[in-house]
């Protein structure tokens, strides 16, 4: 079995973006993640800051000047192929729709063989109400249905990891239904730990960022995950800032190689 360390992190598209990204790059480098999936990377300048600061050789981003969906993947190993699939815009008109949200689908050549990686960011629920009748829940369900179809059809023989800011609670019917429809296991099932930094206006947010996995043909995946990047860091100008309004999720994946089985 070969281990892969992965991070998923919503980097926050506003408030001191250059300072926070300059600080994030060295944090990623020190942590020595093998694969990093980022959300809310909205400008080419942000892509350049992250590439320069983190030092990853292999980067996947569609439309580098204005990254599609705000999604960026960095890897220590070659990225064999990748593409972006946009979700259909629906529901109430909102500024968020300018992000053109969707999913980034990539294949990374790990020492254990190819790994399918899906990085995504779904629409936010501005009402903080995930009941079936809510206007934003309907939008999110449409996006989850689309994502499930993408995952089922994407390199189905490969082991896969699906991560990102789902903007839907881990224990919600919409999310658990998505995981079942996509053929995925929720690595953090039953863990209620929030992935969004509590605020006075939202003192007890749910777990909105997720890590799910799928076994490949003859290549099982063993996985665990935890929240990281919770503390403030010192940025280059001397201030202390939180890296985002989200926490990161760090995942350890153990993969069997295609020719070795479980040996």
From TrEMBL:
SUPFAM superfamilies: DNase I-like. Gene3D superfamilies: Endonuclease/exonuclease/phosphatase. This is Endonuclease/exonuclease/phosphatase domain-containing protein. Residues 7-246 form the Endonuclease/exonuclease/phosphatase domain. Pfam families: Exo_endo_phos.
